Amino acid sequence: MIVTKSEDLKANSHNPKSKNLNSRAFLFAIDIIKFIETLSLKKISNSVLDQLLRSATSIGANIIEAKGSGSKKDFIRFYQIALKSASGTKYWIYILKDGFNINNKEICYLLEELEEISKMLGSSLLTMKGKKAIG
Q1: Cα separations (Å) of 118 from 11, 63, 105?
Q2: What is the pTM of this model?
Q3: Quick one: fold of 21-128?
């Protein structure tokens, strides 16, 4: 059984541009939680915030679950789910940005970090499948 401690996930918290996908996904989820806490719940539907929280935290959870998978096929599947969760997270962030007119530095940062995490996941998947990343 693989046990991941939060200290292991936060190991690169001093460097937000770390190449450690586990740490970045974990810190991104924490950033989403902190961001949600700053929003006015009267203005925004709880269901939108719940969906954002679920999809954002699912990214890191699936990356960690991949480490405990029993086969390469399972490992790839968890990374695919993490990438799908990243796409869903992007959707919900844009709902907040465009639907609720929330356009601040934090939204921009979250979208940039999500893009980097998505690229890392995509590149990892291509490597695992034996294909080269484009760009």
Answers
A1: 20, 12, 20
A2: 0.82
A3: de novo design (two linked rop proteins) (1.20.1440)
